[in-house]
Amino acid sequence: MEENLLEKLVRVLCSCNRACTVQEIADHINGEKMIDVRKALSELHRRGVVSKEPDYERRKLVFRVRPEYCE
Q: Which CATH fold topology does 3-69 show?
């Protein structure tokens, strides 16, 4: 997995005011394929950097970075 993409995802999630869907995250990262964004988010979730939770109002899964990983 490309570390540069992982760092970009953490920065994007830290800058979000709320939990973001995969589509919202991909919109902030230009030039990356959706499948690469999904794989990177899965890797961050396995590492414990990102939490994945359901948003019942939007009917989507959302991602939120853990506070200790934001600068």
A: Arc Repressor Mutant, subunit A (1.10.10)
